[in-house]
Design goal:
The structure is a homodimer. Chain A is α/β, with parallel strands linked by helices. Chain A has helices spanning 13-24, 38-43, 68-72, 90-93, 106-122, 129-139, 144-151, 155-169, 174-183; strands at residues 4-9, 29-35, 52-55, 80-84, 98-101. The first copy, chain A, has a 5-stranded parallel β-sheet. Chain A binds a DNA duplex through residues 65, 91, 128-131, 143-145, 153-157, 159-164, 166, 172.
Chain lengths: 194, 194
DNA sequence: ATAAAAATCATCATAAATAGGGATTTTTTT
DNA sequence: AAAAAAATCCCTATTTATGATGATTTTTAT
């Protein structure tokens, strides 16, 4: 069984060591490193080959316009878990893939992390046929209005499809979606020109 | 010497025939077809393999929000020349690659069309280094603000670079620019993910 | 038959991008 | 030294896109 490498970002040493101790006696997980700040993590080479991040949300800029994931600069496929002491804005918490609190038991923590691994597999949701059509149109460089007109649906529906595409693929930018459409053979280079 | 195939779109038969006659005795050009309206041209198969369009601007919807080129549906690499009788709004005329008037002599017309061919070669302008950098950033999915910050320039400069990139490449959409960056080996698929 | 998934449409507020100008300062080239 | 090209910055107005939510109708699968 391959162990998931965890990185903890938590300012309090007591909590840091407590979590490390609990996880060290939990099968399937190993704490790779602990950091006290996000900056420390960013500068460290270990940060690049973790399988899971556990971070205290108070270390984040809560009023930042970027998502938690963007602030941390962590790839979409790697889960980020919130480590919660007290009440935190719901909008922040829901950006995490899971939450563990300082009151959780060892078993609860283990369950949450294991559930996360499962979720992550199922998260590879397939795009529906309609979503693929919309994605192709986006990759062709069409605007939402143009897509709406050519597919005989309202622009609202196009926007909804696009939101679902972003949610399923985890890709936000048009360039990323174009690359996705190309590598998945949904479209060829020749079909993109304007 | 390969002759440039010209399509003329002009409502007046006299002007049509006059221009055809002049061009037939001008080296390097051959009139492929004459149309009286834009719609006629659009429906005709010949329209697809012309090297140059000469059109009377009064046939266009001058108050249309689309550019002349968009209204005609002509590729960026093919020059469009205005055929002018009288005064026309400067904003319209400047959208053309050249203008010839009914008072021009055969030599003047020939010169203008030859100059156009030259221009056209030089129009394959290379992107500057800075522009390539910006293009790569765009293809990576970065916003103008992000590009500005990471390159230590103002967002206005980024926008200006982008405008010039669009002008030089003739590619307007982010997906098109991404494909361009990929096929020109400015970026690899791996570098695009968010 | 019912639950789940997919497709549809909507609103409000905000963020980002585009179009179409102008303008100045550096660099490069001739 | 002058001209041309590249890089920089700014503006206004308009169009597009996004984020956050909510909801209804079809399809599809159990």
């Amino acid at each position: 069984m391959i162990e998931k490498k965890i990185i903890i970002i938590e300012p309090g040493l007591i909590v840091q060591e407590g979590l490390r101790s609990i996880l060290s006696s939990t099968n399937g997980f190993v704490v790779r490193h602990c950091f006290s700040t996000i900056e420390q993590m960013r500068l460290h080479p270990y940060a690049n080959d973790a399988d899971l991040f556990i971070i205290n949300p108070t270390l984040l800029d809560l009023h930042h316009h970027n998502s938690v994931r963007q602030q941390l600069g962590i790839k979409n496929e790697i889960p980020i878990v919130a480590l919660i002491y007290s009440f935190i804005d719901h909008n922040i918490v829901q950006q995490f893939d899971a939450e563990i609190t300082i009151h959780d038991s060892a078993v609860q923590i283990a369950n949450k992390l294991v559930a996360l691994k499962r979720d992550n597999k199922n998260e590879n949701e397939e795009l529906s046929e309609r979503e693929k059509e919309i994605l192709i149109a986006v990759a062709k460089g069409m605007s939402n209005k143009e897509i709406a007109d050519s597919h005989f649906i309202s622009i609202h529906t196009v926007i909804t499809h696009r939101k679902n595409i972003v949610k399923k693929t985890g890709i936000k930018s048009v360039s990323g979606l174009t690359a996705y459409a190309l590598v998945n053979n949904l479209i060829s280079f020749e079909e993109i020109d304007n």
